[in-house]
Here is the input.
Amino acid sequence: MKIPIMKLKGILLTSIPEELTDEDAITFQGDLLHQVNRYEARGVVLDISSLQIVDSFMARVINETANMVGLLGAEIILCGMNPSVAMTLVEMGRELINVKTALNVEQGFEIILALLQNEDAEGVS
Here is the structure.
């Protein structure tokens, strides 16, 4: 399954669908990292609102993807997390270190734009 990744103002927007096999998750991870590198994206908004539950594999993929995006120099906002997913991640010990979260995609975009504006302002001073 090919998951669409959209680009808007140097930010990539994508959403993890509810039905995702382990193989699809790994393919998505590689595709997203490739797009971050290809477009020199400064940020990623990753919508996980369709996920009602996560298993240990998906939790690991989300965590590792967020960390890998950061290593490529882009900011990432994880948005739309359901309470059950948040509880599962905590119970599994999957801390999302240096990953900001938002309630929804709109708030995610606002946060990432503010982060990037702050980076630009700090770079000028």
Q: What stands out?
A: Helices lie at 22-39, 56-71, 83-91, 105-124. The first strand starts at residue 5 and ends at 8. The CA atoms of residues 15 and 47 lie 4 Å apart.
